[in-house]
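Today's session is about reading a structure prediction critically. Students often jump straight to the picture, but the first step is always the sequence itself: look for stretches that repeat, for charged clusters, for runs of hydrophobic residues. Only then move on to the predicted structure, which in these notes is written as discrete structure tokens rather than atom positions. Here is the chain we will use throughout the hour.
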Amino acid sequence: MCWQQKFRCYDSHQCHERSERMRAIWAMRAAGLKCVALFAPFALVLVFLCSPVTASLQPFTSNDAPIQIVKPSDDHKKLIVDEENIKAISQIKGPVAVIGVVGKFHSGKSFLMNQLMGKTKGFGIGPSVRPETMGIWMWGEPLKVKLPSGQQLSLIFLDTEGFAATNVSENYDAKIFAIATLISSHLIYNSVKIIDQAEIDYLELLARRTQLFALKSQLSKAKWNGDYLHDLLSFPPLLWVVQDFVQTTVDNETPTQWLHRLMEAHSRESEEYKISLLDVFKSLECHTLFIPAVRRTLLTDLSQASEEDLTAEYIEERNALSKKLHEVLVPKTKNGKPITGAELNGLLRVLVDAANDGSLADVPSRWSAFVDRLMNSAAEDCAQIYISEMNALQEKHNNGPIKDDIFVARHTEAEKMSFTLLKQLLHGLPDALDTANNQLTKTLDNEFALRREMNFKKVKLF
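Below is the predicted structure for this chain, in token form.
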């Protein structure tokens, strides 16, 4: 036997039919004949080429298991390429496609990838609250896929460490997202139950950071780019998958229409720092999946769920997802030309090196961006308090001349009020408070000088 690939059957007729095919193939294999077997698990057409060749020409036969290609450092701040495991990528001949999945930890990414590969036991799934996947993993045996165009390629599935885990920094999340995005030819963002504003915000921030990271990576002294211009900056298509989705969309919207409406509404509300995923990724679609099982024991640990345990709705929507991915699947390219496993290996090394050398450090994190906005807003609002107090003084005097001692006294009182309020707004943020104090001081000094000069002129006139 050459390839030990398990296929799920959805009814007894299909099961019998596939069993007969397999017997015929193994018989041909035993006879030393070259054979091509066509199957369609989950509507994804896979082409397996079997021939009586030596094991050295089939390097993935013994790797039908997940392997870790990038792991975190002990302090979980840097990423390390696994030199032994990454050899599996270099040995892939011909065009390569990569489907990567990202998302929050314990959102079902690994289970989703196992389902897309047609495996009950695949990437690690755990019932505990601890994150199961660390770094970046690939399935060691790429699937041989024939595209609708007739092109054949090796399909790699990547599983990644989840975002927002305890004791993991946002900068580390950004590294995982950036590498997974730029190495994939198709990216899946996985979420659970619903798409909320916080998740859109976080994904848009990660996308913005990845854009700058891609530029820094391209400008670095990387070995992968034999020429300066290549499509490293090009983001792959993004498919947002919402698992455990039991709601209904508005006015019979498709999931993609629903997602686009949320994105457009978000952009209109955020004009001052507008960034949209619709402007970043080549395409942006959404697909929903029903609850995979109904028994609590299975939902707690889906690694124990067999095909017969899955709900009919989930199977139908999962199959539709596989079909959708197959229809849009394309090889990873460089300058428009498909790359091989060796080139993909080189790209992965470039991205990991760039992530570790600080290419992401200069991009503001979500927290620092929030603090900056809070600081600027606080300084502006406190300046407005001062302006309102001084305007009230002028209105009290019918916009006429004011004795200088009264003018200065009100200035001092309004200035004190503004700085007291600023201190309250930025309590616990000493660096931001220092910067905002300087900003507010300049604003109030200029405002006071202009108003006092105008008041002197009024005094002279009267």
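Discussion point for the tutorial: The chain has 13 helices and 13 strands.
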